[in-house]
Specification:
The chain contains three helices and 18 strands. It is mainly β and 327 residues long. It has a single domain, classed as Porin (Beta Barrel). Strands 2-3-4-6-7-8-9-10-11-12-13-14-15-16-17-18 form a 16-stranded antiparallel barrel. β14 and β15 form a beta hairpin. 30% of the residues are buried.
Length: 327
């Protein structure tokens, strides 16, 4: 019953003055919202499963003209139905995915403290299905650097500039509720510099982090994006170096991808992505080709389908379907 009520929550909002995807205003300083993402996967590995992949609830708002906040609680793989093995399981534990406050002093200086998305890769700035062009995420944004930072960040436009942004962040403690971060970090520093031009953006970003297993990591990335009303082109490349404390051996991880999205009409999108991925820590190298389709009847609702081809990791060849909604 509890699971059913949670899944029906977006529908209950229609009983009040509410606009889908914009949250429900409980008070002038508090909006409530969230998102649901479901997936069906069928791969060469034998995987044949349906899952409620993400279920999340958000609270956010402006406390003053300069001070805002966001809190996000998320359960990953909330429900999984495995057709291959005829089993079902659920995970009803909600972790703190994000929790931060931002003080905007000026266009040149904002201060954020708490748990927030690591600045840098475009693939990491769209962490949820509904915001992405494809259901799957680029390998670059999953295995080279921590998705989230539990610390503090300053960002804004460089003084005297309206087209060059910067960000500097630091973490000197363990993750806040590390459940869904891809690395369990205890020390992380990094920076971003981004140039915005008409239709184009270019960014250089990187950092260093240490996880609780005493592994030291350095990473550096370069991003380029072109966007007009019908076309979006993303080019990103990054490399990371891993060193185990008290050991001299260094291992590298590298990834590059090019993604092109074409809007066919108001509701239909075609997406293609090529990825190269190499990880010496697990002795894996692969070329990945993805062809996808995205149907958005309205912005907060998305139906996606994609086919994945892997040159080396052939178990991952297959089809991925998803439905996601922002409420």
């Amino acid at each position: 019953m509890k699971r059913l009520l949670l899944l029906l929550f977006p529908l209950l909002l229609y009983a009040v003055d509410y606009r889908l995807g914009h949250g429900y205003e409980i008070a002038p300083w508090l909006k409530a919202g969230g998102y649901i993402s479901t997936e069906y996967a069928k791969f060469n590995s034998g995987e044949n499963a349906f899952e409620v992949d993400d279920l999340a609830f958000l609270g956010y708002g402006d406390l003053t003209e300069s001070l805002s906040y966001l809190i996000e609680l998320e359960a990953v793989k909330y429900y999984v139905r495995d057709f291959q093995n005829d089993t079902s399981e659920s995970n009803t534990r909600f972790y703190v995915e994000r929790a931060y406050a931002t003080y905007a002093h000026s266009q040149s200086l904002s201060l954020t403290a708490g748990k927030f998305i690591t600045p840098g890769s475009y693939g990491n700035q769209t962490p949820i299905n509904i915001l992405r062009d494809t259901t799957s995420k680029p390998m670059l944004s999953q295995f080279l650097f921590p998705r989230l930072v539990s610390g503090a960040m300053i960002e804004g436009y460089l003084p005297g500039s309206e087209s060059t942004r910067y960000a500097l962040f630091v973490q000197k403690n363990r993750d806040i509720d590390h459940g869904y971060n891809n690395f369990y970090t205890k020390d992380h520093v990094g920076a971003l510099i981004k140039k915005e031009m008409e239709g184009w953006e270019a960014a250089l970003w990187g950092g260093a982090f240490e996880d609780v297993d005493l592994t030291k990591n350095l990473y550096l990335g370069l991003s380029l994006q072109y966007k007009d009303p019908l076309n979006t082109l993303l080019l990103e490349g990054a490399a990371a170096e891993t060193t185990q404390v008290n050991e001299s051996m260094e291992k590298e991880r590298q990834s590059f991808y090019a993604q092109y999205c074409r809007q066919l009409n108001r509701q239909h999108y075609l997406v293609g992505r090529y990825e190269y991925f190499k990880d010496e820590t697990i002795d894996q190298e692969d070329n990945i080709f993805i062809l996808g389709y995205n149907y958005r009847p309205i912005f907060p609702v998305s139906f996606k389908a994609e086919y994945q081809h892997h040159d080396t990791n052939t178990d991952e060849k297959g089809v991925l379907l998803s439905f996601s909604i922002l409420f």
